[in-house]
Design a protein that fits this description.
alpha/beta; 6-stranded parallel sheet; 8 strands; elongated
């Protein structure tokens, strides 16, 4: 069974800055500071981390547990209206082709699709609701689980294991995100990683992240299905090649030598052919 985890913002949907506006309003109401999110980057971090940073920037200290909970509640209170504003201004959208991929995956019995997002669980569902995509996700890991992104992913996998009543191997987990931090979190947990370029992440950082797959969006499902091991490539691309490396060792080997396993296999075959020719 393959476990596929999707980030939300910039990977499944673009909510037109609804989360940023909601947090700005929550901080202004609590601390009296306007547009606090303009002072730091939210992309790729969990809500726990972003809320703590926002409060510290505005108030000069970390929030107590009570203050943090109050901030969460205010944010969740503001978020639905901000999502509606994005919809009204036509700044809310689904990533190109993502629903087609989710429909395809939902029909398979060998995959289980979940969320691996830094959003609070309630905030995640509020953002997803207008897209109609929520129904495809049976479980998830959320920003309320941890401020560390890799732990969020591992919590999602733990929940998947409980649903399936089995232990999930890291090699069977695939993480899809739009920032280099999503890729780093997947690697830290020992999972496969893929990056979406048409999200909110810095393209240069994504390109240097070492993700196994890096594509603009989901308009062409073929590379996604090959990466997931659900479809064979007509040109012979297979797992264990540089395009779909199975381990960091293969990735490092390619970086140093410019050779993937196909090149090595071809070289060995040539050597064997030469040896047979020489002994005749």
């Amino acid at each position: 069974m393959k476990i596929i985890l999707f980030d939300i913002d910039g990977t499944l949907i673009k909510a037109g800055g609804a989360g940023t506006r909601g947090l700005n309003k929550a901080i202004k109401e609590l601390c009296g500071v306007d547009k606090i999110c303009g002072k730091f980057s939210l992309q790729g971090s969990t809500d726990k981390e972003n809320f703590t940073t926002a409060f510290k920037q505005a108030c000069g200290k970390k929030p107590t547990a009570k203050q943090f909970r109050e901030l969460e509640l205010k944010y969740i209170g503001f978020l639905p209206a901000e999502v509606k504003k994005s919809l009204k201004s036509k700044n809310y959208s689904k990533l190109n082709g993502v629903e087609k991929l989710l429909v395809l995956l939902s029909k398979r019995k060998d995959v289980l699709v979940g969320l691996g997002t830094g959003n609070l669980k309630e905030g995640a569902f509020i953002k997803l609701e207008p897209s109609g995509l929520r129904k495809y996700f049976a479980f998830g890991g959320y920003g309320c689980d941890s401020h560390i992104r890799s732990e969020v992913l591992m919590k999602a996998v733990e929940r998947a294991g409980k649903m399936l009543r089995t232990e999930i191997r890291p090699a069977d987990v695939y993480v899809v995100g739009d920032t280099h931090l999503d890729v780093a979190a997947a690697k830290a947990a020992g999972y496969h990683s893929a990056g979406v370029m048409d999200g909110f992440g810095d393209p240069k950082l994504l390109e240097r992240s070492g993700s196994e797959l890096l594509v603009k969006d989901f308009s062409d499902l073929t590379p996604w299905l090959i990466w997931l091991g659900l479809e064979k490539d007509s040109k012979g691309v297979r797992r264990g090649t540089y395009i779909c490396p199975d381990s960091p060792i293969e990735h490092a080997h390619y970086g140093r030598t410019g050779m993937d396993l196909n090149d090595i296999d071809a070289g060995i075959s040539e050597l064997r052919a030469l040896k047979r020719k020489a002994t005749k």
